[in-house]
Amino acid sequence: MMAAAPADVRIGLAALDLLMPFACVVGGGGQVDHVGPTLARILGGAAEGRGFLELFEVRRPRDVETLADLIAQAPCRLRLRVRQSDVALLGQVIALDNGAVLVNLAFSVAALPTLDRFGLGAHDFPPTDATGNLLYLTEAKNAAMAEAERLTATLLRENAAALKQAVTDPLTGLMNRRGLEQGLDALLGEAVPFALMHIDLDFFKAVNDNFGHAEGDRMLLNVAEALRMELRGSDLMARMGGDEFVVAMRGLVDRRVIQRIADRIIARIEAAGTTPDPKITLSASIGIAIAPATVDRVLERLHAEADTALYAAKAAGRRCARFHVDQTERRALIAAEIVPSSRKSSSPPMGTP
Predict the structure, then answer these.
(1) Which CATH number is 13-120's, of 3.40.228.10, 1.10.760.10, 3.30.450.260, 3.30.930.10?
(2) Residue 315 neighbours by CB under 8 Å, 6+ apart
(3) pTM, 2 dp
């Protein structure tokens, strides 16, 4: 007994759009009669009534110039290009009984990266279309990459903050000892001179003992602000701990200029260093060493020279700045009347150990 022939299957356009959202129906005259929703988004507007070959360039099979040429090839596979967007498509054409053709399309692999242009997602393709799965994977990959980039940016910010914290004095915001060492190492590697200042606060212990550590911290913040006001952003400023500060001024070797800066720093510290007891006023003593632009500069020696000059400032009555000079340089400076020959002056413009 022979099996009955299967009945013809007829579906409406709504069902066709669900099964083949990337399909179009081309009438016998070559005009597009219906466009699926996904294809409509690719074409960017109303396509019904326009010529199929006006919308698409057929690249395979070759020599397709009319709908009759296309029907003659049916059923066949197509390679198309959307004329207005230059998107490459794959397709299959099937002749219908009424003289029209059904063209079902899909993206080529090469065109997948362009899908973002049209705002398409996995929901724009039927479950049986691998494009939807590829889009899902692409969306998942993009989401993972975006999250990875966000985490990387966060880690970089946190790492930069940690590095900054490692070289910053938590109270004043100036460099700490480690930060200063790194900055001075960089300066020593450059062929530029600089002036190194060691600053020690006068009467700071009396402030702490009489008014408490909170007042002492306020004074330290005032000192940091005085340094920022008088120095340049390119200068190194550090709190070494307690009431000791170090400054390195890039490119400055003129002693008169450096002396004026030191005097202004001391004046600012004293102006902000008043306490409820007029007998106790914060001040500063400063020792200065000059680092010439030579290759034999040794950081330990420069610190020792600045310390020696600082002791000389303390011995001269505090509240003053002194330069380190060796004996040969001292005689030359005295002859030029830059350094006074006597140590008895209470606040000479410059002095020596």
Answers:
(1) 3.30.450.260
(2) none
(3) 0.54
The tens place of each residue's pLDDT in the chain, 353 residues long, gives: 555 556 566 778 888 888 888 888 988 888 898 988 888 888 877 788 888 888 888 888 887 777 787 777 777 788 888 888 778 888 888 888 887 888 888 877 666 666 666 767 666 676 666 665 666 666 677 778 888 888 888 777 877 777 777 889 999 999 999 999 999 988 888 878 999 999 999 999 999 889 999 999 999 999 999 999 999 999 999 999 899 999 999 999 999 999 999 999 999 999 988 888 888 889 999 999 998 877 567 888 999 999 999 999 999 999 999 999 765 555 554 555 545 544 333 333 333 33
- Topology of domain 177-335 in CATH is Alpha-Beta Plaits (3.30.70)
What residue segments make up the domains of the chain, in order of their start?
A: 13-120, 127-166, 177-335
Cβ atoms within 10 A of the Cβ of 81, count? Answer: 16
Distance CA 212, CA 214 (A): 6
